[in-house]
Amino acid sequence: MKLENMIIDILKDEVIPAMGCTEPVAVAYACGKTKEIHNNKEINMIEILVSPNIYKNGLGVGVPNTEEVGLDIAGALGIVIGNGDKGLQILGDVNKGHVDKAHRLMDKDKFKVSIKDTDKKIYIEVNIKSESHQTKLIIEDKHNEIVYIEKGRDILYKKENKLENTTGKDFSYLQKQRIKDIIKSIEDLDAKRLDFLLDGIYMNEKIAAAGLKKKLGIGVGYDMKQWINKGILSDDLLNNAMMLTAAGADARMSGINMPVMSSNGSGNNGLTAILPIVAYNNKFPQNEEKLIKGLAISHIINCYIKSYIGRLSALCGCGVAAATGASAAITWIMGGDYKQVDGAIKNMIANISGMICDGAKGSCALKVSTSASVAIQSALLAINNTITFEKNGIIAETAEETIKNLAWISTEGMVKTDRVILDIMKNMA
């Protein structure tokens, strides 16, 4: 398969709408699909098992249309709705009746959410038992990737050649390419083949506008707008990128009933990959082709980096992956050459490689705000050929080698960090 076609396939698969934070929504989707397959009104037991990273990212985030947080309410709503066809937008039509039924379900001993002892970053298992039969469904590696379905004694579906990691066939191929060649392929593509990416601008700009209009979440974006209006902060590119991206996260983490365009399994990654580019375009309007290809670069670099560090990790994917994609894209949009794009990536990793992920929650707006500002800073420095020296800490000669060093830290160096973060969060729950 040609690299251009592989890029389009990856983008169509990884840049998709999601309603609410991806981890609770994935649990709701798994529960809804399992209930649909179970097809029995009498339920004696519901058991939901999730990986530590799913648990971490779902513990403190708002669930759409509920004013509540957590995996319990999300899973119970999935059971109540029982419709897996809506995928990661399953919670879009939740009403008070659904919430009331979900609470009655959660109040009974038959409903339980637990952590699965697994090394998988993404793992969701739902077991529904009735007197007549039991139904089991498992999601692995991707938030909407069903790999196993069992009903009674019959295996209805089992994904063959299941991946042993979060990389995937397409990403393994992508990893073999130089970033320069990936960008060159995007440059050579007919922009009409990528115009579906524009939906992400409309969708994520809309949710950011909601976070600027009303103080949602902890109100990072909203407050920044007030200070800009008062003249305390300047109305410049950097502050607008911070403001827009934070406002989107404020709204999303509060559980607002609005979809976002996700990137590589994360709504906040989608906000961070897209909204700094929107901020740049608002200040310095681009033609549609340039804008579309910039979005493609941002998303594909995000996917490239996360194929190494994992979809979920101890590192903040918004900072080290999505914002790095945005910085590379902005450098390219500004006319940067391949060496300067390479430099923007190295500048990003030199700056915020230590940003940890302590779960999805309201304060993610602070992290995406910081990430957006560093994305602008790294791009502007790279355009002036101010680039981190090689063999400087974890920074190598190329962006590709630097990303591999980052992955080494994520997959080997921070395994214990991830466990400690989760222990702290459980102790405070």
Proportion of helical residues:
55-70%
Tell me which CATH architecture of the largest domain applies here: Orthogonal Bundle
Distance between the termini: 48 Å
Mean pLDDT: 92
The CATH topology assignment of the largest domain is 2-methylcitrate dehydratase PrpD
Low-confidence stretches: 162-169
Largest sheet: 6 strands, mixed
Order of helices and strands: HEHEHEEHHEEEEEHHHHHEHHHHHHH
Q: Estimate the strand proportion.
A: 5-15%
Structural class: alpha+beta
Strand order of the largest sheet: 5-2-6-7-8-9
* Count of individual beta strands: 10
CATH homology superfamily name of the largest domain = 2-methylcitrate dehydratase PrpD
Number of helices: 17
Folded structure, characterized:
The protein has 17 helices and 10 strands. A 6-stranded mixed β-sheet has the order 5-2-6-7-8-9. The chain has a two-stranded antiparallel ribbon with strand order 1-10. The chain is globular. 54% of the residues are buried.
